[in-house]
Amino acid sequence: MKPLIYDIRLEALKKWLEENGEKSFRAGQIYDWLYVKRVSSFEEMSNLSKAFREKLAASFEIRGLDLITKQVSADGTIKFLFSLHDGHAIETVIMRHNYGNSVCVTTQVGCRIGCTFCASTLGGLKRNLTAGEIVSQVLMAQKALDEDDERVSHVVVMGIGEPFENFEALLDFLYIINNDKGLNIGQRHITVSTSGIVPKIYQWADDMNQFNLAISLHAPNTELRSRLMPINRGFPLKDLLEACRYYVNKTGRRITFEYGLFGGVNDSVAHANELADLIGDINCHVNLIPVNYVPERDYVRTPREDIFEFHRTLQKRGINATIRREHGSDIAAACGQLRAQHAKEAAR
Questions:
Q1: What residue stretches are annotated with the Radical SAM core domain (predicted)?
Q2: Of 162, 160, 124, 118, residue with least CA distance to 295
C-alpha cells in the first residue's frame, strides 16, 4: 500500500519533493490544504498543477478513517469508533473543558500491556498504528468540531495502546500536529501517557521536547502495582520512579502521575499516605481518576466521600492533586469499551 500523506513530517515532505524534482516550498502548500483547509483529495489542491497532483496521488494515500459509530454524552463528550483500512476498529474521544476541546487518541490496535482494569487489553495487541492513522484521528475530530466553528486545542495520547511501544510513529505524529503550518497544537497542550516503559522515559527526557508526560501509576507500592499492572514486573516501580526523577531533573518540567481509584483495592487513606511517601520528593501532579466500570473487569467505583478523603490526605501531605472530572459517564466511556462491544457484536 502507498503511505498516507498524513504520515510525513513537513521536513521529510520537503526532502521528498526535492528528490522528485519539485520545489520544497510546495510542502507548506500541501500542509495548508491538508491541515488548515482540511481537504479530502489531492484533486482539491487547486493551486498545484494537475501533473503535480497526479504525482502526489500516485505516491501517497489521502485516505481518512471510516466512522463505525458515534456516541454523544449529555456533557458534550463525543466518542468515535473508526474503522481502519484493514477492518480493525479504534476509538477516539473529544472531551470538552472550560479551557478548550481535548482529543484523546489511540496509538495501537489493542494493547499487550495487560493492565487488569482496562478494556483496551481485551483481545491483546493486533498492530501499531502509523503516524498518519493517529493524525487522522485528530483531523476527524477537528472536522466534527468545524461544524460548530470550534477547534482542537489540546491532545492527550491516552487512548488504546501503549504509546512508547510505538515510539517512532508517536514522535512523527506529535511533530506533525504541532507544526505551525498545520494544526498548530502547542507542545504544552499535548500530553503523552505511558504505563512505564523505562528506557523510553530516558529517551523522552533527552529529547528535551515540551510535550507533557504522564505516568499511569495506580498503586503506591510495587506488590500492588504488579497485581494491577503486569508491566511492573518488567520495569519495577523503583526503576520507574528513578526514570521519572531523571526526567524532572533533566527537563525542569513537572510530571503527572495518573492514579485510578478502585474500590477496596488502592483507595484507602493508608494508600494515600503511602503514595505521598513514594513520590513526595518529585515535582509532580497527581491526577486522581474515579474508575469507569467495565463489565469484563471486576473493579468497582470508589465511594464519592472516599475519593474526597484520598484527595484531602494527599493535599495535607503537600502533594499537588486534582480529581479528574468525569466525561461521558452515560456512554461507553472506559478506554477500549466501545471497541470491545463492537468486537462482540461482530463475533455474533
A1: 97-330
A2: 118
Give the angle 252-258-261 at the CA atoms, nearest 5°. Answer: 155
Give yes or no: residues 10 and 115 share one domain. Answer: no
Q: Determine the Cα–Cα distance for residues 184 and 175; give it in Å rounded to an integer.
A: 9
- Same structural domain for residues 151 and 54? no
Per-residue model confidence (pLDDT) at position 299? 85
Q: Is 24 annotated as a binding residue?
A: no
d(CA 247, CA 50): 49
**322 and 256 in one domain?**
yes
- 335 is an active site residue: yes
Check which CATH number belongs to the domain holding 32 and give it.
1.10.150.530
- Count of domains for the chain: 2
- Tell me, yes or no, whether 131 and 280 share the same domain: yes
Q: What is the pLDDT of residue 119?
A: 83
Does 218 show up as a binding residue in the annotation? Answer: yes
Residue 49 belongs to domain spanning = 5-59
Q: In this structure, are residues 155 and 102 in contact, taking their beta carbons and an 8 Å threshold?
A: yes
- Phi/psi region, residue 229 (left: phi>0; alpha: psi -120 to 50; beta: rest), is beta
d(CA 90, CA 22): 36
Sign of the four-CA dihedral 138, 140, 145, 149: positive
Phi, psi dihedrals of residue 292, rounded to the nearest 5°: -85, 135
* This model's pTM is above 0.70: yes
What are the pLDDT digits (tens) for 37-53? Answer: 999 999 999 999 999 99
Residue 56, annotated ligand binder?
Answer: no
Q: Is 284 a catalytic residue?
A: no
Distance (Å) of CA 261 to CA 202, 306, 324, 333, 336: 28, 10, 11, 16, 18
Give per-residue pLDDT as tens, 299-347.
Answer: 888 999 999 999 999 999 999 999 998 766 666 655 555 656 655 555 5
